[in-house]
Amino acid sequence: MGSKQEKKAHVMCIPSPSQGHINPMLKLAKILHSKGFDITFVNTEFNHNRLLRSQGPDGLRGIPSFRFEAIPDGLPPPQNLDATQELTSLVKSLEENCLSPLKKLITKVSASYSPVNCIVADTLMSFTLDASKHFDIPEFLLWTAGAGSLLCFDQFPNLLEKGLMPLKDSSFQVNGYLDTTLDSLPSMNGISLKHIPAWIRYIHPGDEIMVEFFCLQLKRAKTASAIFFNTFYDLESDIIDEASSKFPPCYGIGPLHLLENKIVEKTVASLIKSNLWKEESECLEWLDSKAPRSVIYVNFGSITIMTPQQLVEFGWGLANSNYSFLWIIRPDLVIGESAVLPNELLEETKDRSLLANWCAQEEVLNHKSIGGFLTHSGWNSTIESITSGVPMVCWPWFGDQQLNSWLCCNKWVVAMEIDNDVKRDDVAKLVMDLMNGEKGIEMRKNAIVLKKKAEEACVSPFGSSITNLDKLIHLIQTSIK
Hints:
Blueprint: H1 3-6, E1 10-14, H2 19-34, E2 38-44, H3 45-55, E3 66-71, H4 87-97, H5 99-112, E4 118-122, H6 128-135, E5 139-143, H7 147-153, H8 156-161, H9 207-221, E6 227-229, H10 233-246, E7 250-252, H11 256-263, H12 282-288, E8 295-299, H13 308-321, E9 324-328, H14 343-348, E10 353-356, H15 361-365, E11 370-375, H16 379-386, E12 392-394, H17 401-411, E13 415-417, H18 424-436, H19 438-459, H20 464-479
Parallel strand pairs: 1-2, 1-4, 2-3, 4-5, 5-6, 6-7, 8-9, 8-11, 9-10, 11-12, 12-13
Helix pairs in contact: 2-11, 4-9, 7-10, 11-19, 13-18, 18-19
C-alpha cells in the first residue's frame, strides 16, 4: 500500500448512539484496525457508560492503536441509566450540541496520539461532515441498514411535496389509504405507503422533528464522497444501483459480521464487544441440549416496546405452538411496566423455554437447534438471520422495520409477517408454519441460498463486499493529505 500506509492513518469512527448502529460501526472499526489503521471509536458519554457497565471496567480499555472516547449528547441523564433514550429528544440534541465537543475531541486525540486523518461516521450523524470540513480531512458515511431504507427515507420530501403525507387525520391509518402503492421506487415494485417509515405520517407528537431530522441527514449525505452499507450486492443489487443514481457512489460491504469473522484476527481488539446489555451465556448452554431446528428464537431488539397484553398474547402463542423457545425479554420491553408473564404460562412451558435479558445473537442464530426467528425486523437481526439461513416471522414496529419485513416477505421470500394486533392463535399458527410447514420449508431453502451468496460476497477473494471494502480502504488512503 506504499508510504501512505507506513504513516498508519488514524480513522475516527462515530456511530449513531443506539445499539443497532453501534454494532455494525464497531465491526467496521475492527476490520479497519486489522487492515492497519489506527482507530478512535467515539460513543456518547451515556452509551460509553452503559458499555462499561455491561462489558466491565476493562471492556473498553482497548489497545494503544484502538481506543474509545466519548462526547456528551447534551441530554440530562434519564432515571433508568440502562434504558434506550427517547429518540426525538436525542436526535434534536445531537444536532444542536455535539459538533463543538467533537471538534474538541478531534483536537485532543490528534495531539495525544496522532492526527486524525479520516472520519467514518454513521449517515445519521451527518453533523460530523462540518467537523471534517473544519479540519480538512476526508469523511465517508456508513448507512448501517439496508440500501432500501435509504431510498425510503429519501421519499420524505417527495411525499410532502405531492401532498401524500402527512395524513389528514388518524382515520387514514385504518381506511386503506396506506395501501396506496408508490411508483417512485422502481427497484421495490409493489411497495406501499405503509412500508415508508411512519414518522412521515405526523400522527404522534414529535414526528415532524424526526422527518426534519432525516431530511437534513440525507440532504447532507448527498454531499459525501461515498456511502457504504451493511448489506451485500446480490441481496439488493437493483436497490443499490438505484441508490447510486440518487446519492454519491453506494457500496455494499456487508454483512459486516461475516467480514469481521473473516478478516479480524484474534487479538485484544477482536474481543471488544458492543452490547449495551450484559449477555447471558446460559442461552447457548441451554440450546446445546436441544435437537436440531427444534427451537424458535424470539427477540424484538433494543428499542421495540409493546403493551402487557401483546406480551401475554405472544407468550401464549409460543406456548400453544408446542415448540421450544428462547425469548429475549429486555427489562424495558413493556410500556411503563415490568415485562412479566403469567405464572400459569411459565409453569406450562418451563421444560421447553428459556427467558433471558440479552444474548449473543449471532451465535444463537448460528446454533444448530434454531429453526426459526420471531423478530421485530431490525436490519441487524434481518441480515444476521439471512446469513444464518434461518427463516423469520416478522412483527415490525417502527423505522425501517416495516420495509425490512416487506422485503423479507415479498422480495426475498424468507419470512411471514404477523399483524400488529397480536393474537395468540395467529402466533401459534405462524410459528408452526415457520418451523415445519410448507411455507417454512420454502423460506428456509431461500434463506440458505442467500446465506451462500452472503458468504461468497465476504469470503471469496473477488466477492463484492471484499472488493468494496478494498475500495473504502483505497479511498481513505488516497484522500489523506
